[in-house]
Amino acid sequence: MAYTTLISAEELHRNLDQEDWVVMDCRFGLGNTEKGREEYLVSHIPGARYAHLDEDLSGPIIPGETGRHPLPDITSFAKQLAHWGISNDTQVVAYDSMGGPFAARLWWMLTWLGHENVAVLDGGFPAWQNKGYPTSDSLPQPAPASYTPSANPNRTVSADEVLNHLEHPASVLIDARAEQRFAGIHEPIDPVAGHIPGALSFPFKGNLTENGFFKSVDQLKERFSALSQPSPGTKIVCYCGSGVTAAHNILAMVHAGLPFPGMYAGSWSEWITDQNRPISKNSGK
After folding, report:
1. pTM of the entire structure?
2. Is 240 a residue of the active site?
3. Which residue, 94, 227, 273, 280, is most buried by CB atoms nearer than 10 A?
4. pLDDT tens digits, the chain, 285 residues: what are they?
5. Domains by residue range for the chain, with CATH
6. Strand 49-50 and strand 118-121: pairing?
C-alpha cells in the first residue's frame, strides 16, 4: 500500500523495517535554525535521515530577488535525495514536531519532482513518542541510490503569473500565514507587512486539531468548501511567507480529496522584493 498524504504513527511503526521505506526528520525552528538538528541528534525515529530547511530544502537566497526559502535546483535536490538513499520507488515518510509544516515542505517538493509515494506523519514526532515507540540517537549510513526527477510544471506559479491574474478571476490565492500577519497588524519576520491583493486568509493551523493532528477529511472538506467548486478555469494558488506553510494547506486539500493546488513558492518574502508589486492590508477573509 502506498501512502501519498498522511500516515499514522501506528502505520509507520508496522512498516518501519521495510527496505524500500525512508523516514525523514524535518524538525526546524525559524527562531533557532539549529534547533531541529540538535533535537534530531538527541533522539529521532530509528533510521531517520535529517533534512535541514535552509541547507537541504532550499536553494541559495539572492538578495532583492528571491524569498527566504527559494526552491533548490531540481538536479541538486535529486542528488540530495539519492544521497539519503531515496530512489523513485521509495516510500518516503516525513515528520516534524510542529504539526507538519516543515514535513509538508518536503512532501510538496517530492510531488514537485513527480514522486507520489510520500506522506507526512500525522501528529509528528510527538505522536510517535506518545505511543511509546522506539527512538534512537544513532546516525544512519544509507547506501546511495539513484533518483531521476520528472518535474511537474503545474505545481509552481511564478510571481509574474500571480501579478498577471490579480485583475482577473483566473486564480484564487490562499495565504497560509497567521491572520495578524495577513492583515498587516503584526509582521515578525519580513520587512513589509500585508498580503497579496485579493488573497484569502486560511492560516495553516486551521488544518489541525488541538492535539496537533490533521482534522478529519470531512472537517477539511468543510474548511475548504468555498474552494471545492471554483468557476471553470479557476486555479487555486497557495502561498505563505516563504513557501513552507503553504505546503501544509496543499497537503490538507489533497488529503481531503480536492484538486492539487498550485504553489507560489517564492511567496510573500519574494513578492515584497519588488516595490512595484501591490500589497494590501486588511483583516477581511
Report:
1. 0.96
2. yes
3. 94
4. 899 999 999 999 999 999 999 999 999 998 899 999 999 999 999 999 999 999 999 999 999 999 999 999 999 999 999 999 999 999 999 999 999 999 999 999 999 999 999 999 999 999 999 999 999 999 999 999 999 999 888 899 999 999 988 877 678 999 999 999 999 999 999 999 999 999 999 999 999 999 999 999 999 999 998 775 556 567 899 999 999 999 999 999 999 999 999 999 999 999 999 999 999 987 544
5. 6-130 (3.40.250.10), 156-271 (3.40.250.10)
6. unpaired
Of 159, 237, 240, 263, the catalytic one is 240
